[in-house]
Amino acid sequence: xxxxxxxxxxxxxxxxxxxxxxxxxxxxxxxxxxxxxxxxxxxxxxxxxxxxxxxxxxxxxxxxxxxxxxxxxxxxxxxxxxxxxxxxxxxxxxxxxxxxxxxxxxxxxxxxxxxxxxxxxxxxxxxxxxxxxxxxxxxxxxxxxxxxxxxxxxxxxxxxxxxxxxxxxxxxxxxxxxxxxxxxxxxxxxxxxxxxxxxxxxxxxxxxxxxxxxxxxxxxxxxxxxxxxxxxxxxxxxxxxxxxxxxxxxxxxxxxxxxxxxxxxxxxxxxxxxxxxxxxxxxxxxxxxxxxxxxxxxxxxxxxxxxxxxxxxxxxxxxxxxxxxxxxx
Length: 329
What we know:
The protein is built from 14 helices and nine strands. With 329 residues, it is α/β, with parallel strands linked by helices. Strands 1, 2, 3, 4, 5, 6, 7, 8 and 9 form a nine-stranded mixed sheet that branches. The longest helix is centred in the first third of the chain and has 15 residues, at 35-49. Residues 79-315 form the AB hydrolase-1 domain.
């Protein structure tokens, strides 16, 4: 729901790690220098170079949302596309390859969901439906009347609700690696694969070993075993500890996966489902079932040799499929 920071075309952090080696890095890298902070700065420069600026808006008296989007004076020049991140680091860590590829053809909006990044609320609401309503208010506030939406994992939950609530606003829907049709047994099976009792132990890791488990299940060709503890602990400290209590409340308030039955309606819009053939969080069988549930306007694309984050593991193919769908090709 979640990780997108460890595999970028064998460049940057992972390439340095592979060349030097974990033990050597541990012995030579200054403890005060954060690789996570350095790479976060690189991601912000990538978003800025794509023509996006970071902004924050009070959508009502209780909730403030932070987002990346075109400068207000330059928005609405192209079709609008909303990207909704999964449960994990803030949005810039999850959509970099897509922003760089799609910004030439779309006005791309990339919000941090409530309690991620600088987005926050005083409301007691915690469900993904509340997230959907909040993002809808944001786009209405900045004057985006029509748009397509793409959500990965937890962001796919939010995207589904937005499409259901506002069929007149949302033109097309992309759901990536998102078990919207999750039953209680699917949730239990995921916990068993992760060898944990509570979902927050898995999705909000507090130790290097817990993060390695998440990476092993989320990425087909996992890299966690090769990463030194100091790097993983830095990542946990910088990107997982903030607003941890509130994020646990978000997980406990999920409406999907509570029951033994599925309560979903087909969507009015054209829908593209993208799934990794080795997804260990939401197995491929769920994608096939979801396609049947969402109706005849839905198509499924299965990406080979990827797991839960195909948008990062195979960005070129993922981007090509998404753009073809959104442009009607």
